[in-house]
Design goal:
The protein is an alpha+beta fold. It folds into two domains: about 110 residues, Beta-Lactamase; about 250 residues, Histidine kinase-like ATPase, C-terminal domain (Heat Shock Protein 90). Helices cover about 50% and strands about 25% of the residues. The chain has a five-stranded antiparallel sheet. A five-stranded mixed sheet has the order 7-9-10-12-11, with helices on one face. A two-stranded antiparallel sheet has the order 6-8. Strand 3 and strand 4 form a beta hairpin. The longest helix is centred in the middle third of the chain and has 63 residues. Bound molecules: adenosine-5'-diphosphate and magnesium ion. GO terms for molecular function: ATP binding; phosphorelay sensor kinase activity.
């Protein structure tokens, strides 16, 4: 009766389990052992364990483990064993002595299958990787959409140096036609043009960097937070002028450095700036203004604030602006991803993004920890 009782309990245990007598023979196996290794009780009882589940050449290891348990030790090991069909199985085994009245009467061995745990881990890692990949694609998509917005602005930016070059060329041609070109002025004209060409190259280079895919760890380095702001204005400055928006830049040139991704931060600032521009476009107000400031915040932080005087965001909208895909804009104008992606990028910088009302100004503030110079990175 008692034996059946225990057999029933052991049969319901989810790990494979066996008992071994003092001669090293199997005296009992539970149902999970049969399932895992493929041996029935008839094929197992009375045999040494090493005869059944040792992969080629491993018999000695099993016998040694059993000997250690027999001497009273508990043995815990990660091992590879072999099922009846030849399949190798990764396991954790625990061998424990059964001691009654100071006498070793038998050994119990429990086997936990690691394969399933490993498979789950691999699945989890794969899911994590896919998630990272998808996020990085989204960030990229949002950036491309910002670049769409920037296209007309970039056209303006390129137009200006082109016009300057045209004027220099026309001057030269006119002087040649009138036979009054002074040879010594030619190098100066060429230098002028070279400067304009360099300016255009900078804009195009930067556009290329801006659209390149961010890898998931975002190329973090020691940077001056003013740099991404200045780079942003390489692509967007002229456009704001044509929209009658007065832009004021107040950059503190004495800022401590921060640990960050220049492109990631530029993406955030660009989105906030474009959001500010959209807000102002919708208003009839005169004196449309955007102000950008960088400053030291307390002792160990650096902040950038971007504000516009297009009025405050209603509370019910404000509560939702960081949600992915939340937008109040017509299709094609907004993806609703800008601020949620900004928040994600900022969090990867161990920083924060906040929104404040200031009279009729809506103000976004981005704050990052300042580097003290003692960091180990
Ligand atoms: N400066 C701002 N003034 C008014 N509303 C804003 C401002 N910035 C963001 N918002 C609101 O937040 C929403 C979400 O912004 P965002 O995540 O950048 O997506 P999108 O710009 O594509 O709509 C906007 O649709 C707008 O309603
Ligand atoms: Mg936006």
């Amino acid at each position: 009766m008692q034996r059946e009782y225990f057999q029933e309990i052991f049969n319901n245990v989810l790990s494979a389990m066996i008992l071994i007598n003092n001669k090293g023979e199997i005296t009992y196996i539970n149902r999970e052992f049969s399932r895992l290794f493929g041996y029935s009780p008839d094929e197992s009882i009375g045999k040494p364990l090493s005869d059944l589940i040792s992969p080629q050449g491993n018999e000695k290891e099993i016998t040694e483990n059993i000997e250690r348990v027999k001497k009273g030790e508990q043995v815990l090991k990660e091992v590879v064993r072999q099922g009846k069909n030849g399949e190798l199985i990764e396991l954790v085994v625990i061998g424990s002595p059964i001691i009654i009245k100071d006498k070793h009467v038998a050994s119990s061995i429990v086997f936990s299958d690691m394969t399933e745990r490993k498979e789950n881990q691999i699945k989890l890692e794969k899911a994590n990787k896919e998630l990272k990949e998808a996020t990085s694609k989204l960030i990229h998509t949002e950036r491309i959409s910002a670049l769409g917005e920037l296209t007309s602005s970039i056209a303006h930016e390129l137009n200006q140096p082109l016009n300057n070059m045209k004027i220099v060329c026309q001057d030269i041609l006119r002087d040649v036609a009138k036979d009054r070109l002074e040879v010594e002025t030619i190098p100066e004209s060429i230098e002028d043009m070279e400067e304009q060409i360099n300016k255009m190259a900078r804009i195009i280079d930067h556009m290329r960097i801006f659209t390149r895919r961010l890898d998931s760890n975002m190329n973090m380095e020691k940077i001056n937070i003013n740099d991404p702001i200045k780079n942003m204005f390489l692509l967007i400055g002229e456009q704001l002028k044509t929209k009658n928006i007065d832009t004021v830049k107040n950059l503190n040139e004495e800022l401590p450095r921060v640990w960050g991704s220049s492109i990631g931060l530029e993406q955030i600032f660009t989105n906030i700036l474009i959001n500010a521009r959209h807000a102002l476009e919708e208003k009839e107000c005169k004196n449309k203004k955007i102000e950008i400031e960088s400053f030291i915040n307390g002792e160990n932080e650096v902040s950038v604030s971007i504000k516009n005087n297009g009025g405050l965001i209603p509370l019910d909208i404000k509560e939702r602006i960081f949600e992915p895909f939340f937008t109040t804009k017509e299709p094609g104008k907004g993806t609703g991803l800008g601020l949620s992606i900004s928040k994600k990028i900022i969090e990867e910088h161990s920083g924060r993004i906040e929104i404040e009302d200031e009279g009729q100004w809506t103000k976004f503030i981005i704050t990052l920890p300042a580097l003290t110079g003692n960091e180990v990175k």
